[in-house]
């Protein structure tokens, strides 16, 4: 059905569509043909008026072993294939989220990497007793979690404290509910911490959480590339969701938001804020603003030029597609910095810029100025 490649078998059982990943000899590892089919099948299901539900499973003893190693090796040297794969990866996620019929994952065996993602994106999951999930993306810093230990963010701060890196002035840009600022205060109790949260409802949550921390100053505005007011959006149907972005299409495309709530926020440049407050150097700055991370740094050109930003942590993810920003932009702006990807076990050295770095998956990047000791350009660092 649906003119799928042989790597995907689709059968109709009344109104039910049974989708079988069909590379049993390779444990249903995903090659190019299977990836293309997975990108296209959700639109086909949406157009199938007789379909009422879909089941996705694997042929043989595995659900899916994730990416086929030969395919992954080919991606390294084929720019056109890599760009196509990135687009289709996005199509798979958006297609499953927006699929008009429920998708049920029948996990008959190991579900690894993309196999794990397919199950996670399904509406209902049934697992065999012999099945298990594994996501190797986590260990290389390519998966986002709210748990600061899984992301490695907590371990990073503890590592900096253990190494006696000078941390006196800290900025938390996109402070959200204040959780990260509280962690900063716990690990660096003598540091002066500036937290920025411009969304009024979220600001009130952070204000309550941080009210007993004298070393944290919470500011009701954001940082950006210019001093102005901006429209910011969140999901009006989910008031407990504190994800807000100036990129409305990111919320629609990647969070399946159907009802956007718009509000006005005040933003300033980092340079102007530091000038007003007599700050000439920031030891550590964390930026998590859902796609506007580069814009925050563009407002810090004077600080960057004067070597005033020592250690910069920023998020890089799907929202960078919406903001049309690339990892290359950060490399160009932050010249003289060593780049690392933060993982749960340490820092993975990224080295010189490569198009292989353009991965629009949730990750936290650390850019360390060359003047900070203990960070060599050609080494990974274990926490």
Could you explain how this protein is built, in words?
There is one protein chain. With 383 residues, this protein is an alpha/beta fold. It folds into 2 domains: 8-134, 2-enoyl-CoA Hydratase, Chain A, domain 1; 148-382, Vaccinia Virus protein VP39 (Rossmann fold), CATH 3.40.50.150. The chain contains 14 helices and 19 strands. The chain has helices at 32-47, 69-77, 79-98, 114-121, 148-151, 153-162, 179-187, 200-210, 248-255, 270-277, 293-298, 301-305, 319-323, 327-333, and strands spanning 8-13, 16-21, 53-58, 103-107, 111-112, 124-127, 133-134, 169-173, 192-196, 216-219, 222-223, 228-235, 260-268, 282-287, 309-316, 337-342, 346-349, 363-369, 381-382. The strands form 4 sheets. A 9-stranded mixed β-sheet has the order 10-9-8-14-15-18-16-17-19, with helices on one face. It has a 5-stranded mixed β-sheet with strand order 1-2-3-4-6, with helices on one face. A hairpin with a 2-residue loop joins strand 1 and strand 2 (16-21). Helix 1 (32-47) packs parallel to helix 3 (79-98). It is globular. The termini are far apart. The relative contact order is 0.10. The model has no long low-confidence stretch (mean pLDDT 91).
What is the topology?
Blueprint: E1 8-13, E2 16-21, H1 32-47, E3 53-58, H2 69-77, H3 79-98, E4 103-107, E5 111-112, H4 114-121, E6 124-127, E7 133-134, H5 148-151, H6 153-162, E8 169-173, H7 179-187, E9 192-196, H8 200-210, E10 216-219, E11 222-223, E12 228-235, H9 248-255, E13 260-268, H10 270-277, E14 282-287, H11 293-298, H12 301-305, E15 309-316, H13 319-323, H14 327-333, E16 337-342, E17 346-349, E18 363-369, E19 381-382
Helix pairs in contact: 1-3, 2-3
